[in-house]
Amino acid sequence: MPLALTDRLANRRQLPPVPETDLDRILKLIPTEVLALYTATAPLADRIRWTSVPLVLFLLGLALVPLALFLDGWAMNAPARWPQYVVRTLAFIAWAVAISWPFTPWLPEDDLTWVTSLAVLLVPLLGGYLLRTRSGPR
Asked: CA-CA distance, 60 to 34, in Å (whole number)?
């Protein structure tokens, strides 16, 4: 998904596509579009008296991750393979739990912060490794 805005009025020749690096592939596995929404709304959950608000926000984000990937693939005419859906969903879970623990009424966070911090790093890295394209003979 190109993020650079193009000048639609300029009639310039097309530049060749930039090859995708490993870092680009890892960063695409982090669902930043949904995490931005989750990060903005999670602190507001404490102001609402209903105890299930954090869980509802978490489940909403969980549903939006595959939807955003599907819609992006549809708009760009480049659908993602199913393993990318799995890795992005797991990455959302890791990041969301690290940002705000949504299970407080049922399960205390206690000493799980190191696990969530490690998961934030490992899920995209391992996902990038597992989803890399192999070149050359196998």
From this structure: 9
